[in-house]
Design a protein that fits this description.
The chain is α/β, with parallel strands linked by helices and about 425 residues long. It has two domains: about 200 residues, D-Maltodextrin-Binding Protein, domain 2, CATH 3.40.190; about 210 residues, D-Maltodextrin-Binding Protein, domain 2. The chain is built from 20 helices and 18 strands. It starts with a helix and ends with a helix.
Length: about 425
């Protein structure tokens, strides 16, 4: 069935490429509604390793139908996070891409550094008319559109091995840890990663989903409104610090990159993990039908349950404004092609990525074959803060809170209040 769906997607893609091309040959640095006949030039693409198969499938289909104006490119596997941070330091670095894939929280920083091209004219209209509102919001800065939304799945939830963790246990962090410990197994959560450390404090029952937000002041400087060092935040951190540090020190909690999760499920040492749709294929291959997924669990202080929170967002293709105009034209054409309905369905089949294109999300090729991860992500979305509005570069560099949970350095509420204030004051500064 998997190959059949992909074949149907590529066949439809071939039919759609002419329309995409006719809608797409416009410069992005000087966006107008005028269609040009510019030939595609060779470009460099930076995107995550798993995206390469999608790019190849889409461009191969296009090139078969348009041999007189094919796409040619060099592809460099770069994670969404590293892509934005690297280009943010130097968009003209050797081998710099004309087209690159990032998470939407990086838009503000790259726009402020004049690195990404604004999307205007009919290209903008096409995105606005075909994409869900959340993805458009993530691609927008100061009421201007700067990215071509690719997915609606940049968030996280819980995977678990249901031969070890029951569905009931999956709803409680304490029960997950107890079950893993009893089986001499581990629970994975990269707690000292700023993408995950917020999960406890931003619980709706704790500081709340709106407890972290960045803003621009009148001078364009960035500052944060953040309430994690409140009495509630200190109390939650005191509890989480005790729970996490003890389980981390005895090996029940594991941290690290995606490789830790994948290898852990493969060798049976990890039985539950906080991650996203990008790992579903690997984990399914590791444990088959024993793989289950759900929204994040709750933790419990006394008799009160605190639903763990998450960030939500989309991924975007953006154009490097520093590249030659002919490269930007080609990159704009390809970005439009890679984010249309058929390409997003190919990406779903290839990478289990959730479409943000409205027609793709309503298509039976997606709705009838939704993955366990897509269902869990939808459940978690009620407890997720839009990361493009919650945080930007300065927050991502702040990993000390998660590390303090792991280390168990602080034990009293007063110690946590003092520590949290010192860390969060670095975000409150206008700079």
């Amino acid at each position: 069935m998997k190959n059949k769906i992909l074949s149907l997607g590529l066949a439809a893609l071939c039919l759609a490429t002419l329309a995409a091309c006719n809608n797409g040959n416009k410069t992005n640095s000087q966006q107008t509604s005028t269609v040009t006949e510019a030939k595609h030039t060779k470009i460099t693409i930076w995107a995550t390793a798993k995206e390469e198969a999608v790019v190849k499938a889409v461009t191969d289909a296009y090139n078969k139908e348009h041999p007189d104006n094919p796409y040619t490119y060099d592809y460099k596997p770069v994670s969404e996070g590293d892509c934005g941070s690297t280009l943010g330091k130097d968009p003209t670095v050797e081998g710099a891409p004309a087209l690159f894939l990032i998470a939407d929280d990086q838009i503000a920083s790259l726009v402020s550094k004049n690195i990404v091209s604004e999307i205007r004219g009919t290209r903008k209209d096409a995105v606005l008319n075909s994409t869900n509102a959340a993805a458009i919001e993530g691609a927008t800065y100061d009421d201007k559109l700067y990215g071509y939304p690719v997915t609606a799945d940049n968030g996280y939830f819980l995977y678990y091995d249901k031969s070890v963790i029951s569905d009931a246990q999956a709803g409680s962090l304490e029960d997950i840890l107890a079950a893993a410990k009893a089986a001499n197994k581990s629970f994975y959560m990269d707690i000292n990663n700023s993408y995950y450390q917020n999960s406890f404090l931003m619980s709706p029952e704790a500081c709340g989903l709106n407890s972290l937000a960045w803003h621009n002041d009148a001078d364009g400087k960035i500052y944060y409104d953040v309430t994690w060092d409140s009495d509630t935040g200190a109390s939650v951190s005191q509890y989480i610090g005790g729970l996490v540090s003890s389980n981390y020190k005895d090996g029940t909690i594991k941290i690290g990159g995606n490789d830790v999760v994948t290898s852990g499920f493969q060798d049976g040492k990890v039985v539950a993990a906080v991650s996203g749709t990008w790992l579903e294929g690997d984990l399914k291959a590791a444990i088959g039908d024993n793989l289950a997924a759900a929204k994040l669990p709750s933790y419990h202080i006394g008799d009160k349950a605190y639903q763990m929170a998450s960030f939500s967002g989309s991924k975007l293709y953006c154009l490097n404004k520093t590249r030659p105009v002919e490269e930007q034209r080609t990159a704009a054409d390809l970005a439009a092609l890679l984010t249309n309905k058929e390409s997003q369905l190919v990406r779903f089949e290839t990478r289990q990525s959730i479409p943000c294109n409205l027609d793709a999300a309503a298509d039976a090729r997606y709705t009838k074959h939704g993955t366990i991860g897509s269902i869990a992500l939808a459940q978690q979305s009620n407890y997720a803060a839009p990361q493009s509005k919650a945080c930007e570069d300065r927050y991502w560099a702040l990993t000390t809170i998660g590390q303090a949970y792991l280390d168990g350095t602080y034990t009293t509420k007063e110690e946590w209040a003092t520590f949290l204030k010192a860390q969060l004051d670095t975000l409150r500064v206008h700079q």
